[in-house]
Design brief:
The protein is of the alpha/beta class and 189 residues long. The protein has one domain (8-179): Nucleoside phosphorylase domain (Rossmann fold, 3-Layer(aba) Sandwich), CATH 3.40.50.1580. Helices cover 31% and strands 24% of the residues. It has five helices and nine strands.
Length: 189
């Protein structure tokens, strides 16, 4: 007799707009914007579970493209905390763990509390990442602290430049693509 447990999912998104089309039968946490809110709300949600076995966190959201021509849906394999001074912290003898592996994907997501729309910031971040958001790293950190796997799924909504100011007009198209992805994943599991 097989004792394999069915996979369970916890969908985490920063805003209700990004999760507007997620299937209603999936548990959903809306964290609010930024790393602090994302870490707190993801931790609160995970702490409420009596059994974390077979649970996977899915962080859905929009992202800015740091490189020209990058569009559509992506599942980054690495997420980095881009607005921490990692070298200074290392010099003090601590490891800031600013890079977390989240899966096999080759793309890198940079997360930080900075809304990127400045060309200079975009260029600097593009040297180390493909996409930028404000919550992915914090969700990955919280999931890791509970020993729960996490999948980061991001849809490009803008080019992390002045077009980022049009996010409210672009988010619904991203929300639909994200919901389709999660519906396909959860129906096949």
């Amino acid at each position: 007799m097989s004792t394999t447990m069915a996979r369970r999912w916890l969908v985490v998104a920063a805003t209700a707009a990004e999760a507007a089309h997620v299937p209603a039968d999936l548990p959903l946490v809306i964290t609010g914007l930024g790393k602090t809110a994302a870490a707190v709300e993801t931790t609160r949600a995970l702490a409420a579970y009596d059994d974390l076995d077979s649970l996977t966190v899915i962080n859905l959201g929009t992202a800015g493209a740091l490189r020209d021509g990058l569009t559509g849906l992506h599942e980054p394999g690495t997420v980095l905390n881009h607005d921490i001074n990692a070298e200074a912290i290392r010099a003090l003898g601590y490891d800031p763990e600013e890079r977390l592996e989240t899966g096999p994907g080759e793309l890198v997501l940079a997360s930080g509390d900075l809304f990127v729309s400045d060309p200079g910031v975009r260029e600097r971040l593009a040297r180390q990442a493909h996409l930028v958001d404000m919550e992915g790293y914090a969700v990955a950190w919280a999931a890791r602290s509970f020993g729960v796997p996490v999948r980061l799924v991001k849809h490009v909504s803008d080019n992390a430049d002045e077009s980022a100011q049009d996010w409210p007009a672009m988010v619904d198209a991203s929300a639909r693509a994200l919901a389709d992805w999660v519906a396909d994943l959860t129906s096949s599991a």
